[in-house]
Amino acid sequence: MNDKIKSILKTIPSDPGVYQYFDEKGEIIYVGKAKNLKRRISSYFNKQQQSRKVSVLVSRIADIRFTVVNSEMEALLLENNFIKQYKPRYNILLKDDKTYPWICVKNEHFPRVFLTRKKVNDGSIYFGPYPSVMTAKTLLEMLRQLYPIRNCKLNLRQEYIDNGHYRPCLEYHVGNCKAPCDGSIAEEEYREMILNIKKVIKGNIQEVLRDMKAQMMAHAAKLEFEQAQVIKDKYELLENYHARSVVCSNSLFDMEVFSYEDAGNSFYVNYMKIVEGAIIQSHSFEMKRKLDETVEELLTLAIVELHQMDNDIDSNHDVDSDSDTDKRRRIKEIIVPTELEIELEGVRLTVPKRGEKFEVLELSQRNAKQYRLEVEKLRTLVDPERHSKRILSQMKEDLHLPDLPKVIECFDNSNFQGDYAVAAMTQFVDAKPNKSGYRHFNIKTVEGPNDFASMEEIIYRRYKRLLDEGQRLPDLIVVDGGKGQLSSAVKVLQQLGLYGKISIIGIAEKLEEIYFPGDSIPLYIDKRSETLKVIQHIRDEAHRFGITHHRKKFEKGFIHSELNDIKGIGKHTAEKLMLELKSVKNIKAANLETLERIVGKAKGKIVWEYFHGKM
């Protein structure tokens, strides 16, 4: 931390705001928000709390600037705008929404309604984004059957219409357009069609259906049956479209749902929009972690981004033409799976624990999970080795390894009160189990419960053999245990001349601490990290594999003893006695009350009489 940064830190206020980090070239490399600017920015320069990624960011900070705002909501929105404007290297940037289709209601006389991938800031209203082009096209086609609005690009200024500048085209003659170009439809009537189109797109279909039904009944009362039939056909068309929507509840009203699937570096979000109990929009997308962001930070970013999109849409609405029901719907309820420390104007965040809202949240979470599986499957099909390469690269970075850990071997000891000591080795290739490479070891040279000496023996036997046979050595050795077991393994590697040629680490199970040779301070890896998941997996495999071998040996040695010769005493009863009294000698010496307490009166009496008779 240079003098310039130190002086800036002294001047930072404790207000909410947005901060920007600049590199030596004067380029913005990171934008962040904070409730308390001073506390948040200072935390980056606390080395005890830094991850490796944050350390790299901090090392490149040459200047800091900040903007004080009035509230956390203002900070959220300003941060989002800065990220989209400057695209800093260390910030997460959601996939460009312009790649998705939108339905545009053009800001012009006699507005057109069409599909576009490009948003223009000209006062037009945009609905979306739609994850599927087909979904948007189907909706547009249905709207054009309901409301015959124009699709031409003519400039329909009122003086052109009054002067007869245009003549109706074929669309008018086939009934697809009301010909506003020659004044065949008044602008007020046309605007009413556009208002209904907006309602349908937003999902407020029941309101439109009620209006249609009222018009139909009015025409019928006047004996205008042809006009009533036309409206009836449109009513049925809209009703059928609404019936095809995914209805998730008959009692829930309007809400939005956010859920996620956390996959380490990738974070998958599903967004659902529910109107009148029906899901009218479902959209999933992927976010990439840059600085070990928490679930809460990533989910907040996604919510703010989509919330701002909706605000951009709402700000263009003709408020006077919206119904009271539509205005009330501006107060949004957002369903989320976890508590978030954000406050957004006009938004109520809910974390349901049961009931219909919880069921909707579960549906969204299933969509997020399915999206993750689809993305990963597609990537595997395109590049079968891509997934493992990414994990290996991440492990190399997290564990500071010189090479990719393509072959990893893990060792675990197991014994019973120092007797029948065994060990297991599991092998992962390209971050996946290679079960043909698993090995069992019977400890031969160690007496009593000595895990350190046992570790020395199996490490020596394993790698002395590989050296003698000229076989491939692993890229990484994982020792199940803390500093003691790691030191024992390192000692053997030094004897064999392999220390420095093979990377080696130890993992202490209690706190999942990673130990490196010669370093007393452990490394704590993010529990969501794929690196830790691979290490845990190979460690758990070694433990499982070792326990299985140990149990077989235990049964063959301890259990297959005099106890098996006692008529009426089975395997499980023998195990109970051995686990409690440790040896056959102690079982012989136990009194009747002790045996009955362990295995019950009947079997306790059988065992006692068997040994008592022999004694």
What does this structure look like?
46% of the residues lie in helices and 19% in strands. With 615 residues, the protein is an alpha+beta fold. The chain has 5 domains: 3-86, GIY-YIG endonuclease; 92-202, no CATH class; 255-379, no CATH class; 393-555, UvrC, RNAse H endonuclease domain (Nucleotidyltransferase, domain 5, 2-Layer Sandwich); 561-614, DNA polymerase, domain 1, CATH 1.10.150.20. The strands form 4 sheets. Strands 13, 14, 15, 16, 17, 18, 19 and 20 form an 8-stranded mixed beta sheet that branches. Strands 7-10-9-8-11-12 form a 6-stranded mixed beta sheet. A 3-stranded antiparallel beta sheet has the order 2-1-3. A hairpin with a 4-residue loop joins β18 and β19. α15 runs parallel beside α16 (483-495) and α20 runs antiparallel to α21 (601-614). The longest helix is centred in the C-terminal third of the chain and has 30 residues, at 530-559. The chain is elongated, with a radius of gyration of 35 Å. Residues 312-322 and 325-329 have low confidence and may be disordered.
